[in-house]
């Protein structure tokens, strides 16, 4: 009997703690929308095909969240990739061996019926580190993998912001 009281008290405490921390479980019915369109993604950097990689990462992420992609959806996501940097973090024998990729992007959620764009603030630049000492081919391959990881993290953060904060942001930032 005493053990069951402790188990109940433990689970009740965990439930209260999670509820107080702002965690919420959302089902598909509670999503702010069930479909979304991917609009223009502009690559303002010199890195080729970055917009295509972000488009693919967004599509995969929203599908994982249960949001379907449809060109006729009420809401459309647009993005500007503004900056990508490759920084050497460490070196071995005067050769850079560890690098970091940082990607900055601005996103907008456009209500296509009202022509209103809400700017979505995605926290900080997204970084992915990788190590490559040997030939240039390995460096390029590792850079591509790290870039895809950084874009995937960026897409996941955007999806989380839209799913959990969209209903709480009623006011538009600007007219489109």
From the structure above, extract its key features.
Double Stranded RNA Binding Domain, 7-stranded mixed beta sheet
Write the layout of secondary structure elements.
Blueprint: H1 2-20, E1 35-43, H2 50-64, E2 68-69, E3 75-92, E4 95-111, E5 116-120, E6 126-131, H3 136-165, E7 174-175
Helix pairs in contact: 2-3
Overview of the molecule:
This protein has 176 residues and is of the alpha/beta class. The chain has a single domain (29-175), classed as Lipoprotein like domain (Double Stranded RNA Binding Domain), CATH 3.30.160. It contains 3 helices and 7 strands; from the N terminus they run H-E-H-E-E-E-E-E-H-E. Strands 1, 2, 3, 4, 5, 6 and 7 form a 7-stranded mixed beta sheet that branches. A hairpin with a 4-residue loop joins strand 4 (95-111) and strand 5. Helix 2 packs across helix 3 (136-165). The protein is flat, with a radius of gyration of 21 Å. The termini are far apart. Mean pLDDT is 81; it is low at 168-176.
Category from helices, strands and their pairing: alpha/beta
How large, in whole angstroms, is the Cα Rg?
21 Å
By DSSP (H or I, 4+ residues per run), the number of helices equals 3
User: How many separate structural domains?
Assistant: 1
Largest sheet: 7 strands, mixed
Which residues form runs of ≥5 with pLDDT under 50? 168-176
> Which architecture would the CATH scheme give at its second level?
2-Layer Sandwich
Number of strands: 7
Helix fraction by DSSP (H/I, runs of at least 4): 25-40%
CATH topology: Double Stranded RNA Binding Domain
Mean pLDDT: 81
The helix/strand series, from N terminus to C terminus, equals: HEHEEEEEHE
Fourth-level CATH superfamily? Lipoprotein like domain
- Give the terminus-to-terminus CA distance: 64 Å
What portion of residues belong to β-strands?
25-35%
Coarse shape: flat
CATH class: Alpha Beta
